[in-house]
Amino acid sequence: MNALFIGYGRMGSAIGEAWLAARLVDSLSAVDPHLQSSSSASLYPSLDAVPARPFDIILVAVKPTYACEVLAALPDVLCEGAVVISVAAGVTVSNLSQALRQRCPVVRAMPNTPVLVGAGCTGLYADAALGDTRRELITRLFAAVGLASWVDREELLDAVTAISGSGPAYYHLFSEALSAAGVALGLSPELANALAAQTAFGAASLQTQPGADFVALRTAVTSPNGTTASAIATFEQDQALRHLVEAAARAAHRRSQELSQGV
């Protein structure tokens, strides 16, 4: 299977290199005028320079404002028989398909930044032209960089964006605040950072075990009248933390909807 990436920056190259390492694709070509070399991809400065041959997968990883322009410029020979996957946030399948002039099926993917370390989440949505075989193939491709999940309505990608797309920043902010609290309690910044980061890693590792239950995991650490119970009681006072997290997720969801509408 041959893949063409249009845009091979941090996100595009993380996905492409993972596919190559897992031998999910036989060859990978990438169009990116800002890159001079790659360890395993064949790089081209423009679409015009790409050899005229069909590709099985074409992944578009450019800024959203350029996605439709790039697809409109795709030569027929490159996209004949291909599936186009767009990771451009907020650009709808309808707009992508129109730009392509309905020449091939389109998949929207919403990966998050942990795909850079193979621990990402990717929300997927496809138009009606995508068959089961191709759907299974794309699931395997994105499972190579973490969790891959399909939604049955395109608007649910806005919810995916609010939870996992933006979510890593929420956890980074909490870790930042936890580290700062450690410094306030007398720890060195280096130690506070290390403790906050390793604690986040350990908690996430437990959460991703088969059958893990968030409430049970929290309860297991929270001895009655102990130190953790005191901290949790502060978070849970008037359900302040829960209300704040929901409000933040709703704000991200609303902004994702606005971006899809070109606002």
UniProtKB/TrEMBL annotation:
Annotated InterPro entries: 6-PGluconate_DH-like_C_sf, NAD(P)-bd_dom_sf, P5C_Rdtase_cat_N, P5CR-like_CS, P5CR_dimer, Pyrroline-COOH_reductase
The Pyrroline-5-carboxylate reductase catalytic N-terminal domain, residue ranges: 5-90
Pfam families: F420_oxidored, P5CR_dimer
Name of the top EC class for this enzyme: oxidoreductase
Positions contributing to NADP(+) binding: 6-11, 61-64
Function statement: Catalyzes the reduction of 1-pyrroline-5-carboxylate (PCA) to L-proline.
Name by which UniProt lists this protein: Pyrroline-5-carboxylate reductase
Organism: Pseudomonas fluorescens
